[in-house]
Amino acid sequence: MLLKDKVAIVTGGTRGIGLAIVEAFAREGAHVAFTFVSSEKQAKEIENRLSRNGQIIKGFKSDASSYSASETFVNEVLQSFGKIDVLVNNAGITQDNLLLRMSEEQFDAVIAKNLKSVFNLTKHISKQMLKQRSGSIINLTSIVGIRGQAGQANYAASKAGIIGFTKSISDEFGTRNIRCNAIAPGFIETDMTTVLNDETKAGILKQIPMQRMGKAEEVANAALFLASDMSTYVSGQTISVCGAMTR
Ligand code: NAD
To answer: How many structural domains does the chain have?
Structure first.
């Protein structure tokens, strides 16, 4: 029970990596508040499946890219749970295109949902964590934010921004025992990557020394480490979970 009695927030928790993190945190004893945008039915199923013996797993409809909706959500979590020990900024999207074809809307949407969302949630939980003098903030970046990727200038910019944000927050909050780290997944089997065609996938596999895509659970295990007291002296870092794709 690595997270017994801790309260965790996970944005975008109804599928993929976010869902795997909600499941891992629930298994390890945390109370979890997760957000979703439209998957009401999945959220209810997750609540029913994972809540047990006084351990609460609860979904909240909230758009992480909205500053005011994020504030309302954080206030609701504090009313229901009384504290926040862990924040996982997981919500994210892709809208891929080569720069020559990328619209302003595609650029703005990806920055708002991937990067501004991290600011929104971190800003609104910070007062509580500062009061507690403890907390772990975990931001989902990507190896694409480290090395760039043709066709993903908007996504790469948002994910590189998250790494800078993570380092800055670890610096600002270090004296208050609040840690902030990023996880950089490589290519992970989720809805986000099933849209890639076979040729693209084959090209990607050739770049992965471990010769396979990763699983959402393998990313969730890194989040579990960073959320738990196993990592009390780890802050300001970006941990890649990528089968040695970046090194
Ligand atoms: P996914 O598309 O399966 O899930 C993303 C989740 O975020 C969805 O549930 C979606 O509804 C939610 N979401 C999107 N915008 C939101 C918003 N504004 N507010 C609240 N929720 C929102 O993707 P995934 O593969 O599980 O990715 C999770 C995170 O990991 C993302 O930040 C992604 O960029 C990152 N990542 C994924 C991979 C990969 O290969 N799958 C690689 C590197 C990084």
So the answer is: 1
